[in-house]
Amino acid sequence: MTIRRLFAGLAYACLFFLTTQSHAAVVLGADTSWLSEMEANGYLFYNSNGTQQDLFPILKQHGMSAVRLRVWVNPQNGYNGMTDVLAKAQRVKAAGMKLMIDFHYSDSWADPGQQTKPAAWASYNVQQLMDNVWSHTRNSLLQLRNAGITPDWVQVGNETNDGMLWPEGRASLNMKNYAWLTNTGYNAVKDVFPATPVVVHLANCHNVENFRWIFNGLKTNGAKFDIIAASAYPTNASGYTWQNANAACLFTLNEMVATYGTPVMVTEVGVPWDHAQAKQIVADLITKVAAVNSAMGLAVFYWEPQAYTNWKGYSLGAFTQNGGPGPAMQAFLEANSSRIKSRLSGKCIDVPAASQSSGALLQQYNCSSGANQQWRPEATDNGYMRLKASHSGLCLDLASQSTANNIRLVQRTCSSNSSQQWRREYIGSDHYRLRSRFSNRCIDVTGSSLSDGAALIQYNCHNNSNQQWINN
After folding, report:
1. Has residue 14 been placed in a domain?
2. For residues 17 and 289, is the Cβ–Cβ distance under 8 A?
């Protein structure tokens, strides 16, 4: 994006109101392909507490569990070549995150405005291009496999709104060639990782006509794909408000599901980092992907959220100019509910008997799939958040407005009180303490108990495992 020219979509004659099934949890992630180059240029990253930290834990602290990495064939400075990609992929997997590999089949950017063949392939005919798509895809993935890394998805071609590897693979000139090149990439992926889904990706999620044309052409010419992906840059959609662009994107995704029976995802989203509605725009898009019919909306990836101070002229990152998460990152933090599991006991924060009552005392209990153990964070400010129970809509609170030790925790009608505001303090291995803004004390399992029903209290913060939690 940005460095790449945006491909303007055709405007809709009208908007559509869609009836969807219940919302599904979606995988949340980010394309962070610039990371190694930014680090080499001295960029540092800071968590919501203002503490310098590696990027991947910061992403995880904001609900992201997946990373997308682009692959270029022979980039001029080495970044996004397989040596660089492999090093980043190893860091992704060490962080316990899912991985998407995105083949551009170019030495540089591939997008709707440019699908330039690698310099070494410049004189190749279609058969030679197919041979090299096969070998480049396969050999790159073999490097991952030999390093013990299995990607969770592989994308063949990037924003191929008019095909790839121009002019031979330009869809408007020869759809068959484009389909065959896509199939070659698909088959190479399956040769190395038979179970890994293969993604075909177009830009401009709001432009359903382009999606119809490309995927009908692929199917007509025998191409295979497992997932349909889209880019969505709502504030850059020509002729649309961001609300209309997001609505049109949902229409496109639902039509792809209905027509081809394949899952869908948004593998790129971005808004200006300082947009007054950045959080609202991204949250709305995540909600729409979660609302795709038949729970077929799989994932949303923010494109290069860690870019800040207009790195390479890019202004659609999600970090502030201070190198820390901005409002758009809060949309990911708040998107999905999760259990909060004790490091000491392996039990979860629980509302007994799924009580709906304000004031119900909280306990630890064997982890289950019940909504009374699901908590959704809602960002407030300065790194603090409320924790809202999925089953009741009530918030985690102190039983009394006291700064003393041993005050019980309850669920209570949500408010702006500081007794309902908590800050995650990460202490390693993705575990964290939850510190009260009101009392400056931490959530504690009383008596370091291992038992079901043990009370949850606030207590002086320390590093013992009965104050350590992990999202589960």
Report:
1. no
2. no
